[in-house]
């Protein structure tokens, strides 16, 4: 294994350590104290741009002729939307629920769309890449509409109407989930030269993901340091994200097995765009729920690493 491949294998750990250590090193350099506000604004602005870029590259590589909706797409879609709707309803009825942080973590883990890296893992595992890609488009466009519909209900703002909150959230989500798809379609049709250049990039989306994850971890570290989160809550949120990861992969596999696409369905439901997941927590929820996104990234990468290991050994993954 060469150095490049070794670094790629350890990217998750490197990005997380860089995010945590980078934050503590930065805040302990006295002459940089005056730059803290600027740095926060810069990172908060850069992160959505990276998420847009990752999705744009991923969508540019999609052949629209391969997009075919299947029955299992509907089942996965219903699971994500029903859990999202149920948690929204619960938090609307009981806004002062003591376990609100944990339920927000559940909401976050289920509504987050499929990761842009999912097709790569699915291909390595021998799964239905075209089916997963179709679901990736479906869920990204759907989440862009569902988030503005649900989030204003659990975090209503005084002197602000539901429609105003809907438009505000949609304006923030649209550039990251919907705009990349239509930009990719327009680029393919009207800018073929640029489209060819984008599709030839091999690892650019991967490095953008690493940078975005690093920024997410840095911001999460900042929020955790300045919050009053207890060790119990830290462990609880981590356990909730692990349980959500297990449930979604299991349900995806179970549904996919009925339609002969166990791997594709499992990855569609279980592997999440954790950079976007953490951005949601920073932008709209209790920022401490970013822990759910950070730990979910660990859980789904551990599980996928195990699946790849079993695949290399020639063992059947049940």
UniProtKB/TrEMBL annotation:
Keywords: Membrane, Transmembrane, Transmembrane helix. InterPro entries: Na+/solute_symporter_sf (IPR038770). The chain crosses the membrane at residues 12-32, 38-60, 72-96, 102-122, 134-155, 161-183, 204-225, 231-252. This is Sodium bile acid symporter family protein.
């Amino acid at each position: 294994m060469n150095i490049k491949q070794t670094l790629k294998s350890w990217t998750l750990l490197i990005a997380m350590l860089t995010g945590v250590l980078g934050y503590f090193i930065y805040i302990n350099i006295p002459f940089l104290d005056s730059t803290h506000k600027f740095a926060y604004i810069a990172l908060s602005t850069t992160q959505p741009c990276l998420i847009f870029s990752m999705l744009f590259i991923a969508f540019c590589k999609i052949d629209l002729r391969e997009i075919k909706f299947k029955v299992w797409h509907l089942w996965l879609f219903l699971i994500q939307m029903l859990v999202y709707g149920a948690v929204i309803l619960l938090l609307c009825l009981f806004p002062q629920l003591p376990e609100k942080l944990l339920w927000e973590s559940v909401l976050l883990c289920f509504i987050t769309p499929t990761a842009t890296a999912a097709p790569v893992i699915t291909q390595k595992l021998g799964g239905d890449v075209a089916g997963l890609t179709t679901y990736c488009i479906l869920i990204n466009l759907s989440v862009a509409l569902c988030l503005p519909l649900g989030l204003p209900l659990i975090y209503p703002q005084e002197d602000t109407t539901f429609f105003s909150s809907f438009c505000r959230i949609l304006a923030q989500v649209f550039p990251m989930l919907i705009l990349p798809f239509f930009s990719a379609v327009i680029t393919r049709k009207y800018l073929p030269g640029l489209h060819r250049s984008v599709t030839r990039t091999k690892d650019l989306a991967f490095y953008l993901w690493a940078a975005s994850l690093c920024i997410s971890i840095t911001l999460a570290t900042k929020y955790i340091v300045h919050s009053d989160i207890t060790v119990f809550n830290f462990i609880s949120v981590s356990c909730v994200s692990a349980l959500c990861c297990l449930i979604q992969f299991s349900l995806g596999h179970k549904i996919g097995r009925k339609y002969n696409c166990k791997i594709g369905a499992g990855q569609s439901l279980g592997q999440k765009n954790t950079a976007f997941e953490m951005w949601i927590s920073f932008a709209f929820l209790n920022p401490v729920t970013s822990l759910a996104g950070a730990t979910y990234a660990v859980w789904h990468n551990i599980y996928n690493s195990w699946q790849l290991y079993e695949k290399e050994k020639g063992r059947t993954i049940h």
